[in-house]
Amino acid sequence: MGYNEGICNHLTAMVPGSEDQFLVIPYGMAWSEVTASSLLLVDGKGNVLEGEGTVEDTAFYIHSRIHLYDPKNRGCVLHTHMPWSTALCCLKGMKLEMCHQNCLRFYNSIAYDTEFNGLVLNQNEADRLNSVMENNHVLFHANHGVIVVGPNVAEAFDDLYYLERAAQVTVLAMSTGRPLNIISDEIAHKFQEDLRNGKNEWATLHFESRKRELLAGDDADFCT
User: Fold this and answer.
1) What is the pTM of this model?
2) Are 63 and 89 in contact (CB under 8 A)?
3) How far apart are CA 189 and CA 60, in angstroms?
4) For a Cys staple, 40 with which of 8, 51, 101, 169, CB 3.0–4.6 Å?
């Protein structure tokens, strides 16, 4: 889907029933190489409890602090440099404008961190990112990329997918040089109310459809 960048983007999921253990991709593997059995089980201190390989430092610091902040609602943390969303992170202001239906999925739920301090290689910087994110489920980090969280993999993935689609449409519209047609707060509020009625189910159906696509293709061994 073009969301990863080399081997440097990270996806993690909490182990059900645990508040300090999560699954992470071993450093050095491309997303297309990863299977269920290759994942590492890691605790909140960075110890590898199961699996072979190491955890990349920025993956541990960013993801562990976000998971530990709220294990129930942050069961899955997805951090990517996917191009359209990251392009917005490189702009002054870097705001996702409410100019399209997909953008409305994120109305009042994006945190914007305008401070970039290089690689996240210590707990202090990870905690700073977490404090900026607060209770939002999306973080735009200036000059870097985005972080999306959700209570489970399906909901986090669904938001990640639609965030990139929203950013793509926004950047393409901005490229025309014409003013964006911003949707009113009233309509945005109404959209959010309607979304809450079915979002969980829609996310699950979307995620299951993606898994069926993988099972029917050349990457069907991902579940082994």
Assistant:
1) 0.91
2) no
3) 36
4) 51
